[in-house]
Design goal:
Elements: H1 9-16, H2 20-28, E1 35-37, E2 40-42, H3 45-55
Antiparallel strand pairs: 1-2
Helix pairs in contact: 1-2
Length: 65
């Protein structure tokens, strides 16, 4: 079985510089893409990156000249 490598909240939290507790709370509230494997919660880093890029940006976007 080959597919994207899923990360736990600790590993993703280190990458995003946020606490694992925040990631797990967002997953429980269904506000961040996640995969539930029984009692385990895992994150696909590509899905999270797309989510960050599209739904979390606020403020003016800089234009390249």
């Amino acid at each position: 079985m080959s597919g994207p490598r899923l990360l736990d909240a600790v590993a993703l939290g280190e990458q995003l510089d946020v606490p694992k507790t925040w990631l797990l709370a967002e997953a429980r509230a269904d506000r961040i893409p996640h995969v539930r494997l029984g009692r385990y919660v895992r994150f696909d880093p590509e899905e999270v990156a797309a989510w960050l890029h599209t739904s979390r940006r606020r403020g003016p976007l800089s234009k390249a000249t």
